[in-house]
Design a protein that fits this description.
heterodimer; A: alpha/beta; Rossmann fold; Dihydrodipicolinate Reductase, domain 2; 2 domains; 6-stranded mixed sheet; 12 strands; 23% strand; B: alpha+beta; Alpha-Beta Plaits; 4-stranded antiparallel sheet; 4 helices; 8 strands; 38% strand
Chain lengths: 336, 167
């Protein structure tokens, strides 16, 4: 049995989801001859460190009761630098201004010879090349499936399952909050503001929804796709972004009369007519991209396999944890 | 622009070629020629229908050239509707001059706005419109959509285009 030690940095919805997934999949992992040991978990309040393995149930309970997983004053950075382990799981929140604190955590992880799995889009949208160079310099793995499309496999699909294909373009719905708002506006004939209020009550939209509804989140995901799949060397500032705040119920009715729906579509394409943009578009009702609710969907156009479409849950604790776990397992198989 | 032209030719050798030369020399792409040998007119002329795509040449010059060569041009039908697209506009569409927006497309000569539906919920609220533009081919349709997007940007209107559909 191969023992792989990891830390979970950031213990919000995603970090806790990863802990639950590891607990739930203990036997599955054992069948693969993998013994995953979480040696440290940290959040803003401090860290809990246990070289033989943190009691994950107790950690989740402590977070719920006290608001922090901490049992010591050690910081996330202390864990990354000083605690012996193989993989850093960065589950800190996205910050599109400067990528911190995730950016520093990831760079430090590479400097201390640890592989990185992340669900945090900020550092990738801003400093993708730097992160990849640092990982490469130390011959370490850097995986980030959870940053795009939640549970829906897209990066690993393009890079591994579709290996040998040239990916011509990717377009899709990469933000569940926007999709929920537009779907509800279409179904109920309600205004943007009314549905936004409903989405906030349900916890689907944040109190400050601008990150989602202005298209910023979708743009960050496109940057990750552009850099990692198309090798485009772009940052967030290169994306042409229009959000959904101006969409009216009447426009959805007019689109409906033509057999169409309006969706916030992210599109990336390389080559002579390179495109990287986020914009509301008309989608025929029977088209594979016309998915409802909070679903995400992506259409990959490839040279050998033709069009490939994937859809799935784009957000959520367990769904994101699924993508993180798939990356952890890939590293265990390849490297550790 | 797609043009369908009905001609009447005299029943003498070489007439069909003489009829097609002015069309072809104008740079038009001839799409079909139907020679109705069995449907002579009372005067004994042979009806011919020519359909062509005109991109740069002028239709009135073609007609002049045909008539100068003693061909009878019976009717001319201009059609744009080979390619069309539906777009949605959102913003202060009427107050910013919908007529002007349509004119800018129609005045191109290669595309036209063939349908507009506007929904105006209240005076201060933004309106929404669906606009159907037709053109003779994809390139010209793209040009027309680009014009609409430029005009819309000047008027602070949001344009929602359809996704590209794989053929």
């Amino acid at each position: 049995m191969k023992t792989v030690k990891l830390s979970i940095i950031g213990f919000g919805a995603v970090g806790q989801g990863v802990a639950r997934a590891i607990l739930q999949k203990k036997d599955y992992l054992a069948d693969m001859d993998i013994n995953l040991v979480v040696v440290a978990i940290s959040d803003r309040g401090g860290a809990c460190v246990e070289p033989d393995g943190v009691d994950l149930e107790a950690a989740i309970g402590r977070k719920k009761e006290t608001g922090s997983v901490a049992t010591s004053d050690l910081t996330s950075l202390d864990v990354i630098k000083d605690i012996d382990h193989n993989i850093v799981v960065d589950a800190t929140p996205t910050n599109i201004e400067d990528g911190e604190p995730g950016l520093t955590y990831m760079l430090e992880a590479f400097r201390h010879s640890r592989h990185v799995v992340t669900s945090n889009k900020g550092p990738l949208a801003l400093k993708y090349n730097l992160l990849c160079e640092e990982a490469k310099k130390s011959d370490l793995q850097f995986r980030f499936e959870a940053t795009v499309g939640g549970a829906m496999p897209i990066l690993n699909l393009a890079r591994e399952a579709l290996a040998g294909n040239r990916i011509i373009s990717i377009e899709g719905i990469l933000n569940g909050t926007c999709n929920y708002i537009l779907s509800r506006m279409t179904e109920e004939g309600l205004s943007y503001k009314q549905v936004l209020g409903e989405a906030q009550e349900l916890g689907i939209a944040e109190t400050d929804p601008s990150y989602d509804v202005e298209g910023i989140d979708t743009a960050c995901k496109l940057v990750i796709l552009a850099n990692s799949i198309f090798g485009m060397n772009v940052t967030y500032d290169d994306v042409d972004v229009t959000g959904i705040t101006k969409i009216t119920p009447e426009s959805l009715l007019l689109a409906g009369a033509e057999g169409m729906v309006i969706k916030l579509i992210g599109e990336v394409r390389n080559g002579d007519n390179a495109i990287i943009k986020v914009v509301p578009k008309l989608v025929p009702k029977n088209h594979p991209l016309a998915v409802g609710g909070t679903l995400n969907v992506a259409l990959l156009r490839t040279d050998l396999a033709g069009p490939i479409c994937v859809k799935g849950k784009g957000a959520g604790s367990m769904e994101t944890a699924s993508a993180v776990l798939s990356d952890i397992i890939a590293i265990c198989k390849n490297e550790c | 622009m797609i043009v369908s032209m009905d001609l009447e030719l005299k029943d003498v050798p070489g007439q069909l070629v003489r009829a097609l030369i002015p069309v072809s020399e104008s740079g038009a792409n001839i799409m079909s020629v139907i020679h109705h040998h069995d449907q002579r007119t009372p005067s004994g002329a042979i009806p011919v229908q020519v359909v062509f795509q005109l991109t740069s040449g002028r239709l009135d010059e073609i007609i002049d050239n045909l008539e100068r060569n003693d061909m009878r041009v019976v009717s001319v039908n201009k059609k744009y509707r080979l390619e069309s697209v539906t777009l949605i506009l959102i913003g202060h569409i009427v107050h910013s001059g919908m007529g002007d927006t349509i004119d800018q497309i129609d005045s191109t000569g290669f595309a036209e706005v063939v349908n507009v539906s506007i929904s105006m919920p209240a005076i201060d609220e933004p309106s929404s419109a669906s606009v159907v533009i037709s053109a003779s081919d994809k390139t010209e349709l793209t040009k027309a959509v680009d014009i609409l997007k430029r005009v819309a940007a000047e008027k602070d209107l949001l344009v929602i285009e359809p996704i590209e559909i794989d053929s």
